[in-house]
Write a structure and sequence with these properties.
The complex is a heterodimer of chains A (355) and B (352).
Chain A: H1 3-11, E1 15-18, E2 21-24, H2 27-49, H3 57-64, H4 70-105, H5 117-130, H6 134-142, H7 144-164, H8 171-195, H9 198-209, H10 217-241, H11 248-253, H12 258-280, H13 286-298, H14 305-326, H15 333-354
Antiparallel strand pairs in A: 1-2
Chain B: H1 13-41, H2 49-56, H3 64-102, H4 114-129, H5 134-156, H6 165-189, H7 191-201, H8 210-237, H9 241-246, H10 251-273, H11 279-291, H12 295-320, H13 328-345
Main location (chain B): membrane
Keywords (chain B): Cell membrane, Membrane, Transmembrane, Transmembrane helix, Transport
Protein name (chain B): Iron ABC transporter permease
């Protein structure tokens, strides 16, 4: 074997085959993902520890793994844990959802906020909050606000998908249709707010910007299980998705039914975004920023799913921590993510244009 | 891009085309007048045209009923109708100009962040200075609209992606999401601006008096004058920058005047009515369909169509959910979004 041949072989990452599953072993990506997970866990613990009753990191970890004092257990498990856990779950869901939409639309700027999913969930939630009446109250009692918002997000996502369908899905059309559907949901939301009672308006408005205030274990439980289940589906289907980056024809040649794979993944992305919105409201920009940051850290050509989820969690919990403690007035987490996300979007646009 | 089409040869030649365009504009003016009459008559309290006329006339009348009619017509219906016409003209002309200057068929003042810039500025000054009268914050709405507009256009025109419809739409949407979150943050910490915001944000032509309408009219008039000045150059610019420069157009000056006109028009309309998206986009396409690509005809048509569409949407909003009201901005969005979707779906424009 000559020297150049050895070099060429070394440049290709080694493949791993476990029964029917085969993947490429990329140590760097795995390292980055693990580091991000560790960082997310630390911020998670910090978020539990920081507050009016500060608790040290060691006590937080001791309590989380099962030990700890009575007082710590109450403050941590009953008061702060649901909020931090909601941040974690929502961040992961938004990160993965963004990674999928950006990969499918082949555009770094495609995210659930822009595709109208969060807007659809927002309309339903504002409708339920502001229109007090027999039916609405019954719906809130039976399904819960979260479930209804999830249904709204899902419905809007499907609407955008079918409106953009024309002998296949094109990323360009998907984004433009998404923007127009978003505009309608915004208009209807604005109208609902006009016709509502001022007391409900503040509640709806706080919900609309994305917030983790007053989360209970009930709110978190549903979001947690949904996210876990959807992440499992995404993990399985993602193996089929990889070849799609080589183009539809190559993917078809490799035996991938690309329309079906793409539809399943988009459905998962919509559901993940819907779960996130139902748990925390439409927190802006996390789904846009997280995959792009993960992609740069992991040095991947496309957004890596797991790392995107971790960055999403890190971003959301970190932003919530800042919103809660570092600002003169306590603001919803969505305001902080918007402050981070707006300039980042501008950076992405300029980068995409200059390339 | 699909819209910069070569003018099709018209059967009968230039004179025939000109005659048809004049006839069309006369017809549009008549439709607008009819819409104005309907707008004065229709509402929570329906009036006959004769009653409207008596309400408008200055003739003294001791009748109690007439006083009531006069009150409705003069303080509610007339300001509302005037504002719908003025804002409609402003948004229509603004939309046509934006599409011309960016050579981008999906350009629209509402979709490009200009509205959200105005919203943010309004909420901010209400929270900071406690302004209660639209007359006070109308100026800040301009500043907000101008800054947001310049940022979005600047972003979208950097580098190779310049003129790509998707880039512009995304820049607009990104800035909108960002500013919306900021706006909400301010509104949540200040109850007065929250209340002002929700009424302002739906996009309505109702509930504003002439003290606000007159400055708006002044700004819109200034914007229209600038628009008229820039029309011949706009025609040449659409032949391409190089050709226009060769024909003696000062491109930088012409662009500056154009953007200034758009800012005046969109800023004034937004300051008075709140954000109304899709109107400029829709009527610019309708106008182009009716007149062809000559901006000297296209822009006035877009203005007239803008007034008609906004007025009709406002009337429809009054009738659709009686006894409540649907704000004009909501009706325009419900009409405009499908219009936009059809444009996209038909592949009228492709990513560059």
């Amino acid at each position: 074997m000559t020297g150049t041949e050895v070099k060429a072989l070394a440049a290709v990452p080694p493949g791993v085959r476990l029964g029917p599953v085969s993947f490429v072993w990329r140590p760097w990506v795995v390292c980055v993902t693990l580091l991000l997970a560790a960082a997310a866990f630390l911020v998670f613990c910090a978020s539990i520890g920081v507050g009016e009753f500060p608790i040290g990191l060691s006590r937080v970890i001791a309590t989380v793994v099962g030990g700890g004092e009575q007082v710590d257990r109450f403050v941590i498990m009953d008061l702060r844990m649901p909020r931090a856990l909601a941040g974690l779950v929502v961040g992961v869901a938004l990160g993965i959802s963004g990674a999928i939409t950006q990969s499918v639309a082949r555009n770094p700027l495609a995210s659930p906020d822009i595709l109208g999913i969060t807007g659809g969930a927002g309309v339903v939630a504002v409708f339920l909050v502001t229109v007090s009446g027999g039916t609405a109250a019954a719906v809130v009692d039976s399904v819960g606000l979260s479930g209804a918002a999830l249904a709204g997000g899902l419905g809007t996502g499907l609407l955008v998908y079918f409106l953009a369908w024309r002998r296949g899905i094109d990323g360009f059309r998907l984004i433009l249709i998404g923007i127009s559907v978003s505009a309608v949901t915004e208009a209807v939301t604005a109208w609902l707010l006009v016709t509502a009672d001022i007391r409900d308006v503040a509640r709806a408005q706080a919900w609309l910007v994305g917030s983790l205030d007053n989360r209970s274990w009930d709110d978190v439980g549903v979001a947690l299980w949904c996210t876990l289940a959807l992440t499992a589906v995404v993990t399985v289907v993602a193996f089929q998705f990889k070849p799609l980056h080589l183009g539809d024809d190559v993917a078809a040649g490799l035996g991938v039914r690309y329309t079906r794979v793409r539809a399943v993944l988009l459905l998962c992305a919509v559901l993940l975004a819907g779960v996130a919105v139902s748990a925390a409201g439409p927190v802006p920009f996390v789904a846009l920023v997280a995959p792009q940051v993960a992609m740069r850290l992991a040095k991947c050509p496309t957004p890596p799913m797991a790392a995107s989820g971790m960055v999403g969690a890190l971003l959301l919990i970190g932003a919530d921590l800042v919103a809660r403690t570092a600002l003169p007035i306590s603001l919803p987490v969505g305001v902080v993510t918007a402050v981070i996300g707006g300039p980042f979007l501008i950076y992405l646009l300029v980068r995409a244009n200059l390339r | 891009m699909g819209t910069i089409a070569v003018e099709r040869p018209v059967p009968g030649g230039v004179a025939e085309a000109r005659r048809r365009r004049v006839a069309g504009s006369v017809a549009l003016v008549l439709v607008l007048l009819a819409a104005v009459v309907v707008s004065l008559a229709v509402g929570a309290r329906a009036l006959t045209p004769a009653e409207v006329w008596r309400g408008l006339s200055a003739a003294p009348d001791p009748d109690q009923r007439l006083t009531e009619i006069r009150l409705i017509v003069r303080t509610v219906r007339v300001p509302r109708t005037v504002l719908a016409v003025v804002a409609g003209v402003a948004l229509g002309v603004g939309g046509a100009l934006i599409q011309g200057y960016t050579r981008n068929p999906i350009a629209d003042t509402g979709l490009l962040g200009v509205n959200s810039g105005a919203s943010f500025a309004v909420v901010l000054v209400i929270a900071l200075f406690g302004f209660a009268n639209p007359f006070q914050y109308v100026w800040f709405a301009f500043v907000g609209a101008a800054v947001a507009g310049v940022v979005v256009f600047g972003l979208a025109s950097i580098g190779r992606g310049a003129g790509n419809p998707l880039t512009l739409a995304l820049a607009g949407q990104g800035v909108t999401v960002f500013l919306a979150a900021m706006t909400t943050a301010v509104a949540l910490s200040d109850k007065a601006s929250l209340n002002a915001l929700r009424f302002w944000n739906a996009g309505s032509v109702a509930g504003v008096g002439f003290d606000v309408i007159w400055p708006v009219v002044a700004f819109v008039a200034a914007g229209l004058v600038l628009a008229l000045i820039t029309l011949p150059a706009l025609n040449l610019l659409n032949l391409g920058d190089d050709v226009a420069r060769g024909l003696g157009v000062n491109i930088a000056l012409s662009r500056t005047i154009g953007i200034a006109a758009v800012t005046l028009l969109a800023g004034a309309a937004t300051a008075a009515c709140g954000p109304i998206a899709f109107l400029g986009l829709m009527v610019a396409h309708l106008a182009r369909y009716l007149t062809g690509p000559d901006y000297r005809w296209l822009v006035p048509y877009a203005g007239l169509l803008g007034a008609v569409v906004l007025l009709v949407c406002d009337i429809a909003g009054r009738l659709l959910v009686r006894p409540g009201e649907l704000d004009a901005g909501v009706v325009v969005a419900l009409l405009g979004a499908p219009f936009f979707a059809v444009l996209v779906w038909r592949g009228k424009f492709k990513s560059a």
